[in-house]
C-alpha cells in the first residue's frame, strides 16, 4: 500500500521529502521522535455524523483543539463525532495513528469529505503520513492540492472552530 502510494506520487510528479521514524500515534509522540521537518505539522481527525452516513477527514494544525460540535454546525451535520477504527479502515484503508490527507487515494468513491483548516492550507508544505505511521512526508501544498484533485477530492478550506 505504501509503495503503491510512492509510485503514484512519482507518476503524478507530486514532490515530497520522506523521513522515516519509529511508529507514532499522536502529535505529541511525533514531536518527541521526529526532528524538525520542513512543513506544517498537522492533526488529522476522522469524523462521522450521528447516523454514520457522512464521513469527514479534517486536518488542522497539530496544536489546534477542535470544537467538534461547532464544526458540525458549520458543516451542517448533526452529532459530529469521532468515527470508529472499523470505519476508518472501511473508508480510508487505515489503522489508527496513520490518518493522513494522502488517504484520499483510498477513497475512490468519494465517501469522505476532506476539510482543511485555512491556517494549515496557508503553509508552504504540510507533513503527512504515507498511509503508515513509520514515516512522514513533507508535501508542498500546491502538490497536495493536485494530488487531492487527482483522487477526486476538492477539499473544503475553512477556519475550523477551536475549543476555547
Structure write-up:
- The protein has helices at residues 2-11, 27-33, 68-75, 85-92, 118-121, 141-150; strands at 17-20, 42-48, 55-61, 81-82, 112-117, 125-128, 135-140, 156-158.
- With 164 residues, the chain is an alpha/beta fold.
- It is globular.
- The mean pLDDT is 93.
In short:
It is built from six helices and eight strands; from the N terminus they run αβαββαβαβαββαβ. The protein is α/β, with parallel strands linked by helices.
Count, helices: 6
Q: Mean pLDDT across all residues, rounded?
A: 93
Order of helices and strands: HEHEEHEHEHEEHE
Radius of gyration, whole Å: 15 Å
Shape: globular
Largest β sheet strand count, sense and barrel closure = 5 strands, mixed
The tally of strands reads 8
Termini separation comes to 38 Å
| Poorly predicted segments | none
Strand % is 15-25%
Class from secondary-structure proportions: alpha/beta
Blueprint (SSEs and pairs):
Layout: H1 2-11, E1 17-20, H2 27-33, E2 42-48, E3 55-61, H3 68-75, E4 81-82, H4 85-92, E5 112-117, H5 118-121, E6 125-128, E7 135-140, H6 141-150, E8 156-158
Parallel strand pairs: 3-5, 5-8
Antiparallel strand pairs: 1-7, 2-3, 2-4, 6-7
Any key phrases for this structure?
8 strands, alpha/beta, globular, five-stranded mixed beta sheet, three-stranded antiparallel beta sheet, 164 residues
